[in-house]
Amino acid sequence: MWIIAVTLLVFTGAINGDDWSYDYETQWPGACTSGTQQSPINIMSRDALVDKHGAHIKGPLVFRGYSNVNASGENNGHTVIWTIEEDEPMPILSGGPLRGNYSFLQFHLHWLSEHAIDGMKYPMEIHFLHIKTGLTVEEALQRPDGLAVIAVICQVHSGEESEYALEELSPMLPKIINQSKLPASVIDLTRLFSPNMQSYYTYHGSLTTPQCQEVVTWIVMDTPLIISDTQYKLFSKVDVGGIDNYRSLQPVNRVIYRSNASLTLPSSLGLIAALLNLSTTMSSIVSKGVCTVVNLKRKFWGNKVQDCNKTE
């Protein structure tokens, strides 16, 4: 029963009841107004530290058991959320900036995105909540590394190929437009993963709902998941007390790390093209230099000079 308990405790406002709203963030309780390392934030890529030597990010992220997860859906009045069923094997997350294993509990969605990257917000953000394996709820909420959240940003494109990511969830949305629950069903969570799950930013922050405890290791993917316009419109019909359900950006005031995979290197073709262009430019410069020397000789002997600007 502790899995269901932690989900209710952390994400439905059970600590202080459900009496909170995205329209009145300044009235949120707990660390939401007093904390110093709150989430979400605007991540500036130029300011993020690339962990080339693995001082903070120790190896790749490892995902085990995310392909077939038995979870039940619900509209809790703040978001749509899918919670793993009690007694089901829990997917396990490890590696990257994490020390030890983290057990998956649930995923939920925000529209617009909560995080921004280089000042840009995205249409949607998916959060995968994990608790450090072996901890109770109370212990996790008291430790700075008690929870880990994978955040996947989403971009809207048109076309049938954009339907794949949310294809399993879309049929469920009309049934939970109002605040209601769905029976459990098997979901392939890897469909909701970023195209590159090793390319991300990571920092220490908080939950983005009351009481905003600062116990979260955030792992924010920087490569958007593509969803369809038709699917995205379905979420605007879900009753979450307003047209959106994201918290405002909070002060950064802390170190943000960037995985090595997030560095964009020139492609092989682009590099070759650049080298060819450089070679052509150098060849042109040399040719004009030779032309100038030849013209000096031509002038000395009284011959007609050549236009070096036409030299190829």
TrEMBL record:
Record domain Alpha-carbonic anhydrase: where: 18-261
Highest rank taxon of the organism: Eukaryota
Alphabetical list of InterPro entries matching this protein: CA_dom (IPR001148), CA_dom_sf (IPR036398), Carbonic_anhydrase_a-class (IPR023561), Carbonic_anhydrase_a-class_CS (IPR018338)
Keywords, ordered alphabetically: Lyase, Metal-binding, Signal, Zinc
A Gene Ontology molecular function term of the record: carbonate dehydratase activity
Enzyme Commission number(s) from the entry: 4.2.1.1
Signal sequence residues: 1-17
Names of the cofactor(s): Zn(2+)
Reaction catalysed by this enzyme: hydrogencarbonate + H(+) = CO2 + H2O
Gene3D superfamilies recorded: Alpha carbonic anhydrase
SUPFAM superfamilies attached to this UniProt entry: Carbonic anhydrase
Pfam family, one: Carb_anhydrase
Family of this protein: Belongs to the alpha-carbonic anhydrase family.
Role noted for this protein: Reversible hydration of carbon dioxide.
Name of the protein in question: Carbonic anhydrase
